Amino acid sequence: MSGPAPEPPPPVPGMEGITLRLIDLAGQDRVSVADILEGFGEASFVPLLVVPALIVVTPLSGIPFLPTILGATIALVALQMAARRRHLWLPGFLKRRTISGARLAQAVSRASPMARWIDRHSRNRLHFLVAEPVATFARLACASCGMAMPFLELVPFSSSILASAVLLFSVGFLAADGLYVLLAAGVMCLAASIPIALLF
Asked: DSSP secondary structure string, 82-144?
């Protein structure tokens, strides 16, 4: 007879709570996407959107193919949020991807001051931007950021700009703060200007 099912992880309070949980996970030699999924729970969509964006926004975005893998993860999470799925699904090849625990800890330590600042400066405002139907468009915008990261990987560290937009969208979802959704849209416009500038 099987034992009781494991309890789901407790809710993650804000951006700083996400970084603290990541630091716990970074104690392993290698941290897989599956480890992160288990650490936050399959129903914790926004934290699982934040985590890959936090990694890409740091200098780790310079590791070849890492923005592509994490961009695909962002796109899948955001699309499932837009579809209002209750539990997240990721393909096996993504769940098996790993990152050094030491590198993850370094990236999170760089992002922690930003996370604390965001938590202090986010609050419930411009709520219509994080309510339906606008929220669905914001989630689709996050997905488009993830899908664009493999193309911007050709320009070193430019994918960090898109990751910043995803982080801003995520803060908007976490704190019901529509101002961050507006800021994210502005950052997306900045990212879109990069390939145009390269062409001309």
From this structure: HTT-SS----HHHHT-EEEHHHHHHHHHHHHHHHHHHHHT--SBSGGGSSTTHHHHHHHHHHH
Q: If residue 31 lies in a helix (H) or strand (E), which one and from where to where?
A: strand 30-32
pTM beyond 0.90: no
CA–CA gap between residue 10 and residue 41 (Å, rounded) = 9
Question: Distance between CA 23 and CA 17 in Å, rounded?
Answer: 10
Q: How far apart are CA 167 and CA 184, in angstroms?
A: 8
Q: What is the pLDDT of residues 18-48, one digit of tens each?
A: 888 888 888 888 988 888 888 887 667 888 8
Contact 22, 104 (CB under 8 A): yes
Grouping H, G, I as helix, E, B as strand and the rest as coil, residue 5 is coil
